[in-house]
Amino acid sequence: MKSELELDIRYYETDQMGIVHHSNYIRFFECGRSDMMKKYGLPIEKIERDGVMLPIVSVEAHYKLPAKMGDTIRIVSEISKVPMAKLVVDTEIYNQHNELLCTGTVTLGFIDSVTRHPVRCPAALKELIEKNL
């Protein structure tokens, strides 16, 4: 399952040189992931209302080129396999010239919102991913 989201770079995301601070890419990964889930009809908030939380287990980012003030970025998020205990979301970020700026992977776990113990992937999410692979 795959999704794209465009965002304009905002002033506060940049440093004095007009370059996006590296920490913002992690936020961009989240924007893309959240938007993808919403577009496919299962926003993360719904999963949490149903009693399962998705904590971040790990984040990996590889920076290629800097995004700059005035750029419009395209965030491409993809889930390429059905999760069991962890959800892996791969992301690529491009600028308006289709230059690859950053690649990354975010791994999320599943925990019961009351007990905080690990649980399997919610059935609704598993079915959605299976249907859209």
Overview of this protein structure:
By secondary structure, the protein is of the alpha+beta class. The chain has a single domain, classed as Hotdog Thioesterase (Thiol Ester Dehydrase, Chain A). The chain has three helices and seven strands. The chain has a five-stranded antiparallel sheet, covered by helices on one side. Strands 2-7 form a two-stranded antiparallel ribbon. A hairpin with a 5-residue loop joins strand 5 (86-94) and strand 6. The radius of gyration is 16 Å and the shape is elongated. 23% of the residues are buried.
What is the fold's blueprint, element by element?
Layout: E1 2-8, H1 24-39, H2 44-49, E2 52-53, E3 56-63, E4 72-78, E5 86-94, E6 100-109, E7 111-112, H3 123-132
State the gist of this model.
With 133 residues, the chain is α+β, with helices and mostly antiparallel strands.
Helix percent band: 10-25%
Q: What is the chains' assembly state? A: single chain
Roughly how many Å apart are the termini?
5 Å
Question: Uncertain regions: pLDDT < 50 for 5+ in a row?
Answer: none
CATH homologous superfamily, by name? Hotdog Thioesterase
Q: What's the domain count?
A: 1
CATH class: Alpha Beta
Which structural category do the helix and sheet elements fall into?
alpha+beta
Q: Provide the CATH topology.
A: Thiol Ester Dehydrase, Chain A
Please tell me what the overall shape is. elongated
- Average pLDDT confidence is 96
Proportion of strand residues: 25-35%
CATH architecture: Roll
Please give the largest β-sheet. Answer: 5 strands, antiparallel
